[in-house]
Every structure is written in structure tokens, then in C-alpha cells.
Amino acid sequence: MNRRELLQWLSRGMATTIAAIIGLPGIRYLSGKAPSVTEPESDFRRLKRLQDLSVGRPVMVPVLGSKQDAWVQSDQQVLGRVWLIRRPAASGAAETEVHAFSSVCPHMGCQIQMQPSSQKFVCPCHRATFDLNGERQNDPVSQEANHAPRDMDPLACRVVCDSSSEDAWVEVKFETFQIGSKQRVVRS
User: Fold this and answer.
1) CA-CA distance, 30 to 25, in Å (whole number)?
2) What is the pLDDT of residues 20-56, one digit of tens each?
3) pTM for the structure as a whole
């Protein structure tokens, strides 16, 4: 092998390596195995033990999960917050019910807070109020119309029994919704 042949082999090897570096991510993307930006937000997540919720007293609970960007995965990150309200069961039923609402105001995306003195939810950004069922309320003093385009966003919620500890847990199907629209549209 002379010097010219050696340089040709080295050039071909470098060209093959560069093509692989550029081409493999494209093949991975086309095959559908590319990493997602965040983990799916549509799964039920275990948030709180039922015994830790008082009847009629709303509690804000953070939703924790993993976030992943192109290179880094971070566990136990706050994905959002939800309001949980434990209610007495409907007539005749022995079990209690738990309702869950997104804590994000559908108007501008601010965190809805609880106003304990009046038992209402209040958005600190534009003073919109919601009752404990998540329905919009007009200001009773000024009679000003509520700025929120829709009621608080309800979330699917269920109570499950843990097989090992036999504790009842509240699980919520955490979703985020488009803000500023009258229609409830789930964001992907």
C-alpha cells in the first residue's frame, strides 16, 4: 500500500463516519424512536391519600413527574398543580367522591388561589371568581362580568386502593388545556 492508497482509505473512513453521525439521528427520527420532549401527560397520577383530604376543604396538590428534553431527563419535577375537593357521597352511597380541577386559570394561565373567607377560587391576575364546583361567578359587589372564558377545567379523578398498604389513594388524569378560548381544548 502506497501513501496515495492510504490517504484514500482514510478519506473514505472519515466520510463514512461523518455520514453516520448525520444520518443516524435522521433514521431514528423517521423510525419513530426519537425521544419525546416531555413524558405523556395523559396518564393517571397518584397524588394524595384519601384520608389526608378533609370533606369540603379544597387542597392544592403538585403533580410530579419526569421531564425530558433532547439530552437531559429530570425526575420529580412539578408538571402542574391541581385542586382536589373531597365531597360527601351522593345520597345513599357509602363512599366519598373527589373532584379535581386544574389550577390554571383558563383566561391568562395564572395559578388560581383559594379565598378561604368566602369559600371561592380566585384568579389573582384578573380577580375572576369560581365557586367550589369550578363554575364562573360574577362579582357580587361590582356586578362586573367574569373575564374567564370558561369554567375551571375539570380533570378525570378516581379513588383506588393500594394493594400493599390498603390505603385509598386519589389519582388524577393530569392534562393541560389551551388558555384564552371558550372551548376546552387539551394541549398535547
Assistant:
1) 9
2) 888 887 787 777 655 554 444 458 999 999 999 999 8
3) 0.72
Alpha-helix residue ranges (DSSP H) falling in the chain: 3-30
Cell of residue 146, nine digits? 367574569
Q: How many CA atoms lie within 13 A of 65 on its CB side?
A: 22
pLDDT digits (tens, 9 = 90+) for 81-135: 999 999 887 665 567 789 999 999 999 999 999 988 888 999 999 888 999 999 9
What is the spatial order of strands in the sheet that 113-115 belongs to? 113-115, 120-122, 129-130, 136-137
CA 124 – CA 50 distance, rounded (Å): 29
Strands 97-102 and 113-115: unpaired
Strands (E), the chain: 44-49, 59-68, 73-87, 97-102, 113-115, 120-122, 129-130, 136-137, 154-155, 157-161, 168-173
Q: With b meaning 16 or more CB within 10 Å and e meaning fewer, what string describes 1-16?
A: eeeeeeeeeeeeeeee
Going by the DSSP 8-state scheme, the letter that residue 70 receives in this structure is S
∠ CA 58-59-62 to the nearest 5 degrees? 145
